[in-house]
Design goal:
This protein is 89% helix and 0% strand. It is mainly alpha-helical. It has one domain. It comes from Amycolatopsis xylanica.
Length: 114
């Protein structure tokens, strides 16, 4: 029974490590991408285009401003959602690591494993 518990704990620890690696290798880069995209759209929408567009500029700028605002809102929501998802996963990993550590200490204290 002790070997089974040890194998099960090792599998669980490996799963937590895989989850941590997924956060670091997949979620963090996606979050950075969306944050940069937000900054880029914000920068682009902040430039004055009247000198480039001539007399039709005010109409086009108004349409662009509305579109840019919608894109910025969408990007802001995407960033906030990814940040929330990342933080929730980190909390899950922290919680399970704490439970795993406490369980390991309790099992050792009970003399089941050394």
């Amino acid at each position: 029974m002790g070997a089974y518990m040890s194998d099960e704990r090792a599998d669980f620890a490996a799963d937590l490590t895989e989850l941590e690696n997924g956060i670091k290798n997949d979620i963090e880069p996606a979050l950075e991408h969306f944050q940069q995209l937000y900054k880029d759209v914000e920068t682009i929408s902040g430039h004055d285009a009247t000198s480039l567009l001539g007399t039709g500029g005010p109409v086009l700028i108004g349409m662009f401003a509305a579109s840019a605002a919608a894109v910025l809102d969408g990007q802001r929501a995407a960033v906030a959602s990814l940040e929330g998802f990342r933080d929730a996963l980190k909390d899950v990993v922290r919680s399970y690591r704490a439970v795993e550590d406490a369980t390991g200490e309790n099992i050792k204290a009970a003399g089941v494993i050394r």
